[in-house]
Amino acid sequence: MEVGIDGIEVWSGKLKLDLPGTLAPERGEDPEKYTKGLGVKESSLPDAHEDIVTMGANAALRLMKRKDLEPEDISRIDVATETSFDNSKPVSTYITGCLEKVYGRGRFKNANQGERKFACISATQAIEDACNWIRAGVNNGKKALVISSDVALYERGDPGEPTQGAGAVALLISKDPNVVEIEKEQGYGAADETDFLKPYSYFPSVDGKRSIEVYLDRMREALEDYERKAGRVTKDGFARATFHTPFPKMSRKAAVLGFRHTIKDTEIEEELAGQIGKIPREDDYENYKQFEEELEEYTNNLGETEIFRDWYEQVVEPTIQLAALTGNWYTGSVHIARVSALLEAQKNGKEMEDKSLLVGSYGSGAQAEIHSERICKKWKNEMEELNIEEMLDNRYDLDFDEYKEVRKVHNYSEEADVESLTEPNDEFVFAGHGSMGERVYEFA
Ligand code: HMG
Fold it and tell me: How far, in Å, CA of 346 to CA of 352, rounded?
């Protein structure tokens, strides 16, 4: 049985922060550090009436309407977020509460609902659990919704500030999917790490430089584990390689390490030997530091070779185009990278049916997961329906004072009182707090 992602909808926060133009001068940083160093251009941020519930519900509503679904067609709803505001009531019941304002109260009463955290790996886990639920034949003919929704803000002045973002991705999981079939093999790399965490705080505590190393270490472990289960990954085995993309240059760092891994002990390594030498092997060094330095030098040189650049341009570059405009959506990150890859192919008339995607999910704390997906026959029709580019174009362009002001409302404080900068139109909005401190929503 083929099981996987049948439909996708994306909802971006309705505000835009121009990173090189507006943020860089205020932080006293060179705009090229953002555009060239990190690979970012813009961040999506939420307006005052938006939050993880409204963005998730808006993405889900659009998906349900487009796929002509009734609430009774769905009996499993998982929401992935790292920006939750309640330790008991899950975001999923807030979201179905919103959806029932449109479809009618009680319509989701038989849906199994939950909430997960672990950046985009948590949404990947939810997708895989939903696929297994369908494969096991216990879904009674029903489908699953997986929604990732985050407002990824850092402290003002934090090095992470240029990587902020906010938005939601809704994914419909079913048999005979239109977009991608999820393959069964998964590779994992996990460790107890404390480089990025939010210990009951709104803003994260981050050791940014270490977080990059931890990401790459876990991704390497996941790739090795994946190969043990699915066989060796080759340079040409996948049409696209999508990674968790906190900022686009992070995917490039992962890509060059992955590429180095795929060429080890192959003809390509031999062919490149005259130009950049061979990949240093640990056994050839008595001094580990020297081995590490030479491996780093080899990797930097590999990144400059024509064969890597051509591969990168075709296999990875299309996956990071949206992230440069949206910023990091934590739980949505690799799921935006998948959309970016397929949208670029659809716009440029590239044929993707039956080709494979390598998908590298990641969550700080930390774990990476790698699996592959086969692109289905109707992938193009699904991409044609997306309006994410129009949404990004229509975002309200913040000046710096507006940016500082609107941030105040997104720490979930009941005192914050900030006017919206955009007019809600046919969407769910945050409408204040109820008597028990709950957040209240309306369809505007
Ligand atoms: P930073 O210290 O501001 O930046 O922090 P930098 O000095 O390291 O510079 C960044 C890059 O720009 C460097 O390139 C510089 O050389 C270059 P690299 O050496 O990396 O190739 N650069 C320039 N290039 C051109 N012109 C210039 C210039 N100046 C410098 N003038 C950092 C950067 C990413 C650490 C920071 O933004 C941060 O802390 N971000 C948040 C943490 C993060 O995103 N970590 C990524 C891995 S962890 C992860 O992905 C999980 C996460 O999503 C959380 C979760 O959901 O679980 C974050």
Answer: 9
- Measured distance CA(396)–CA(85) in Å, rounded: 26
- Among the listed residues 41, 374, 388, 376, the one whose alpha carbon sits nearest the alpha carbon of residue 240: 374
Joined together, the tokens standing for residue 172 give: 């419909």
Whole-number Å distance between alpha carbons of 92 and 113:
6
Q: Is the peptide bond before 366 cis (omega within 30 degrees of 0)?
A: yes
pLDDT per residue over 353-398, tens digit each?
A: 999 999 999 999 999 999 999 999 999 999 999 999 999 999 999 9
For the entire predicted model, the pTM comes to: 0.97
Bridge pairing between strands 3-12 and 180-182: antiparallel
- Mean pLDDT in the chain? 97
- Supply the pLDDT for residue 415: 79
**What tokens does 25 get?**
């001068």
Taking the centre of ligand 1 as the mean of its atom positions, its distance from the CA of residue 157, in whole angstroms, is 14
User: What was the pLDDT predicted at 193?
Assistant: 98
Q: What per-residue confidence (pLDDT) applies to 410?
A: 87
pLDDT at residue 343 in the model: 98
| Residue of 81, 82, 196, 257 best suited for mutating to test ligand 1, as the one with most atoms within 8 Å of CB | 196
Q: Which residues are catalytic?
A: 82, 120, 244
Closest ligand 1 atom to residue 195 Cα is 48
pLDDT at 332 over 90: yes
pLDDT at 411 over 90: no
Q: How far is CA 209 from the centre of its chain?
A: 20
Burial level of 326, CB count in 10 A (0-12/13-18/19+)?
A: buried
389: tokens are 């580019």
Q: Where are the beta strands (DSSP E) in 52-182?
A: 74-80, 112-116, 143-152, 165-175, 180-182
**Which residues have a Cβ under 8 Å from the Cβ of 130 and sit 6 or more positions away?**
76, 78, 144, 146, 173
Instruction: Answer for the pair 357, 372: CB distance below 8 angstroms, yes or no.
Output: yes
